[in-house]
Amino acid sequence: MIDQELLDIVGKLQIARFEVIYEVGSYGVNLPPYKGSTIRGAFGHIFKMVACTCGSEDHLDNCIYQYIFETKPPENSEVLKKYESIPRPFVIEPILDPRTYFAPGEKLHFAFILFGKALDYLPYFIFTFQEMGKQGLGKNHHSLNLRQVFQTNLHHDLNTLIYDGEAGRIYNRWEPIYANEIFQSVENQYINNRLWVHFLTPTRLQKGGKYLSTAPQFEDVMKATMRRLTSILYFHQDLQFEMDFKKFFLHASKVELIKDQIEWVDWERYSNRQQERIKLGGILGKALYRGEIEPYLPWLKLAEWIHIGKNPVFGLGKIKVASH
Ligand SMILES: [Zn+2]
Fold first, then answer.
1. Are residues 316 and 215 in the same domain?
2. Which stretches make up the CRISPR-associated protein Cas6 C-terminal domain (predicted)?
């Protein structure tokens, strides 16, 4: 179990997941099989136009674009030694529909998740998504109409209407989900000393300077989870916590990997900034672990929301834990 003191700190992390619903415009829309990079690319470009009013590449301290996309470390430079990198305070979860053409009138859903202080900027996200639809996505930039934005609940069901495109209104009635609620949502049915971890989008876990191309050991999954969690807490919610990580990972190393259906998938994205194709492969599939898993379940449940590994802003590293 997690001790109460730790729960009290980490449990304060605020998270909210929103689902965006577009209606495809009269020309249809062409998108690549994996849509995360296209959406993230267009979104970043438009967010900058909307939210950066600095007039130069030297952003002012209060620039919202800078906070969301280029979060700066606090004055104390020591912290960067402790944290591997500064995570973005959001994740875009693309639809996992491999189709590359969507007909006029079809609905296109995807989600985004905000952490900590980024929640204050929700209206900027909604406005940017609306603009992104108008300016168009994919090849030929065909337009999409932003119809609705919902907040989803703990089980990812569409819950609260936040934006109504027809009325042109943003409703200020959403509430963050606290990590504490996610910890409490852990269901006992998973606990039988066996647990499947599903890697739903390409997951890029590093070990010894290389990306893992086969099923990760349980310990590697936990290391990636805690690395991501501690840095999100520190940079986006001003929270730090102490725990005996050595012991925590030592115990995790005793959980065995007993079966897997994992494959490496190569996925490329085109970088406008670097004017080249960048390889962003990762592992996909599922792995079965056996051992004393219960103490790790709350953390893994949280990992479902924050994603793990490299490049989560594109939707990579989405995991799910399950009994099968
Ligand atoms: Zn700026």
1. yes
2. 197-319
